[in-house]
Automatic annotation (TrEMBL):
Pfam families assigned: TP_methylase
UniProt-recorded name of the protein: uroporphyrinogen-III C-methyltransferase
Pathway named in the protein's UniProt entry: Porphyrin-containing compound metabolism; siroheme biosynthesis; precorrin-2 from uroporphyrinogen III: step 1/1; Cofactor biosynthesis; adenosylcobalamin biosynthesis
Gene source species: Marinobacter suaedae
Lineage: superkingdom: Bacteria
Encoding gene, per UniProt annotation: cobA
Protein's GO biological process: methylation
InterPro entries xref list: 4pyrrol_Mease, 4pyrrol_Methylase_sf, 4pyrrole_Mease_sub1, 4pyrrole_Mease_sub2, CobA/CysG_C, Siro_Cobalamin_biosynth, Uropor_MeTrfase_CS
Signal peptide (residue range): none
One term of GO molecular function: uroporphyrin-III C-methyltransferase activity
EC number: 2.1.1.107
Length: 277
């Protein structure tokens, strides 16, 4: 017999338990990388019962369709150098809506605590005495790698995996590149499309082999997912040739070589070294 989902659990402290504090509440919900079937049961329940949803641009249309018609939708997505709403204003909006007594869902692509600025938002909620909870989501690294047929760790190829933001400010290279050049390690760069030339150049410049396998996953887990494969010294030109669109995720390591055997989503487009078109 199945077990019905239990009641929501919110952060409890003397401030939020005060009967004079807001009756509203905020759920910081991870929407995963795009495929609605990857939502947790708890995420689905909160989305479908929300009164207000503040959502990012990376949340897929299929997941947005789950929001009740009666709920208010607020787009607060960010693009490179184009923010619909600055982060501090998003934080305050969450506080204000909760103080109106509303059930608020802050919906984020992937997982809110992995390059999602979720910690900043709940810090503001905690300081304001607003009740909140956090619902993890499948992060892009796990979702995109799985749908591309690339295990992030493998006993024969990688004993560790490292998540790195590839959105380099002002094209700077202030990352510990030397530390990234390790045997039996997988590197995953989030938002790495624009910085891909720098990433490849720096890794090779710090000793990583030019023929290290690389995969760039575009729109991972979605019906229009595209995977471009190559090596450190070829991937940049291959991505340019195929005009890949964001959001993207870059996976670097010997595990990428397993894709040719483990790609279980074979119906999706593939742009590999041996299949240029």
């Amino acid at each position: 017999m199945g077990v019905a989902p239990g009641p929501a659990r919110y952060r409890s402290n003397p401030v939020t338990d005060n009967p004079n504090s807001s009756a509203g509440e905020v759920a910081l919900v991870g929407a995963g990388p795009g495929d609605p079937d990857l939502l947790t049961i708890k995420a689905w329940r909160l989305i479908t019962s929300a009164e207000v949803v503040l959502y990012d641009r990376l949340v897929s249309p299929e997941i947005l369709a789950l929001i009740p018609e009666t709920a208010r939708r607020v787009h607060v997505g960010k693009q490179r150098a184009n923010h619909a709403l600055p982060q501090d204003q998003i934080n305050q909006r969450l506080v204000d809506l909760a103080r109106e007594g509303l059930k608020v869902v802050r919906l984020k692509g992937g997982d809110p605590f992995i390059f999602g600025r979720g910690g900043e938002e709940i810090e503001t909620l905690a300081a304001a005495g607003v009740r909140f909870q956090v619902v993890p989501g499948i992060t892009a690294a796990s979702g995109c790698a799985a749908y591309a047929g690339i295990p992030l760790t493998h006993r024969d190829h990688a004993q560790s995996v490292r998540f790195v933001t590839g959105h380099l400010k002002n094209d700077t290279c202030d990352l510990p590149w030397k530390d990234f050049v390790q045997n039996n390690q997988t590197l995953v760069f989030y938002m790495g499309l624009v910085g891909l030339p720098i990433i490849c150049k720096q890794l090779m410049g710090h000793g990583m082999a030019p023929d290290m396998p690389v995969a760039l996953v575009s729109k991972g887990t979605n019906p229009d997912q595209v995977v471009v494969t190559g090596t450190l010294d070829t991937i940049v030109e291959r991505v340019k040739a195929h005009q890949v669109q964001p959001p993207t995720l870059v996976i670097i390591g010997n595990v990428v070589s397993l894709r040719s055997k483990l790609d279980w989503v074979g119906a999706m487009p593939e742009l590999s070294e041996s299949k240029p078109g």
